[in-house]
Write a structure and sequence with these properties.
This protein has 13 helices and five strands. By secondary structure, it is of the alpha/beta class. The structure holds adenosine monophosphate (AMP) and magnesium ion. The site of adenosine monophosphate has 10 residues, from helix 5.
Length: 315
């Protein structure tokens, strides 16, 4: 199933998050049933990333947004491990530093856009400047309200330079968030993640909801669509994200560049009699076998001749 069709926010459409089911999980009932598809999608991603890296004509930007504990880190972990780390750059955007604060809001983002052949993942992004900034009234409306247009222009620029952008909004319920915070409390490996603001932010849930809706309505475009990923089930979130990334990359119809050298010549010149330093006997054996075969061939001719002679003798 192509989740893109089901989960895309159609450009220009009105968005009410209450109309979305955060627990929706498509045709699979549980993680076990989805496991086979998940493995397939990850293998597709592995293959496509190799093509992307070799072909160097496209790049992919994956933007992750969602409330605390929605699973942004989880997507990074479970989906990106299908990729060769050499070709991927993950950037987490936190509270701006004083220097970042002194610049326009896209200043810190642009250097992390992916170059051709690469995949960039934004764990939070330029969208924080119309989300947390709006929910907390960090700048007046007259400032944040112009940013939707600036973001669309910025993303168009990236698109025109060969970058395809997919944006995942990970949707969970407040109940699921509290459950996950509770699990963190009980898990020594994740206790470090807990902050007081995780809990105090919950009071702003409705403000965040309005900010997310405005972001989805204003910034889902043909060239950089938003997908709302139902994320109450972690396994479905990972499945949908990996399927959408795989399908997006496959749509590039990438081809590896043709070799720039004469492979047959190289094979003949360097490999036919090459000595493998790790296994020098092997090369010697190949040489000997080759010599023997040549000799055998020669002997064969001799034999044939001999046979011919003996035949003629006997006849
Ligand atoms: P975390 O992702 O949990 O490590 O937290 C990062 C924090 O940085 C979140 O609370 C974000 O809301 C905050 N943050 C990210 N970008 C901005 C921004 N442009 N302005 C203010 N806060 C931000
Ligand atoms: Mg956090």
């Amino acid at each position: 199933m192509d989740y893109r069709k089901k989960l895309i926010v159609k450009p220009g459409s009105k968005v009410r998050l209450k109309d979305f089911d955060p627990a929706w999980h498509g045709k699979h009932e549980n993680e076990k049933e989805a496991a086979e598809d998940m493995v397939k999608h990850l293998a597709r991603i592995t293959k496509q990333q190799r093509l992307l890296y070799g072909e160097k004509r496209h790049s992919l930007l994956v933007v992750l947004q969602g409330i605390d504990a929605a699973g942004k880190d989880g997507v990074c972990w479970h989906v990106l491990h299908a990729m060769n780390p050499q070709g991927v750059d993950v950037t987490g955007f936190k509270q701006p530093t004083p220097e970042e604060h002194d610049h326009d809001f896209l200043w810190r983002v642009h250097p992390h856009a992916p170059g051709l052949g690469r995949i960039a993942v934004f764990n939070r992004s330029h969208y924080e400047d119309v989300l947390v900034v709006r929910a907390h009234k960090l700048v007046p409306k007259s400032v944040w309200s112009t940013r939707y247009d600036r973001i669309n222009e910025f993303e168009r620029l990236l698109h025109e330079n060969g970058t395809t952008i997919v944006k995942f909004f990970l949707l969970i319920t407040p109940e699921e968030q509290l459950k996950r915070f509770g699990e963190r409390l009980d898990d020594p490996m994740r206790q470090w993640k807990i902050s007081n603001s995780d809990y105090s932010e919950r009071a702003l849930w409705d403000d965040y909801t309005r900010a997310y809706e405005a972001m989805l309505e204003n910034c889902s475009t043909e060239h950089a669509p938003w997908y709302v990923i139902p994320s109450n089930n972690k396994w479905f979130r990972n499945l949908a994200a990996s399927q959408i990334i795989a399908a997006t990359l496959e749509d590039f119809h990438m081809k590896l560049p043709a070799p720039t050298v004469d492979l047959a010549k190289i094979r003949a010149e360097y490999h036919a009699t090459a000595v493998d330093p790790a296994n020098p006997e092997k090369a010697a054996k190949v040489q000997n076998d080759k010599g023997r075969n040549d000799k055998d061939k020669g002997d064969g001719k001799e034999n044939d001749k001999g046979k011919g002679k003996s035949k003629s003798k006997s006849s």
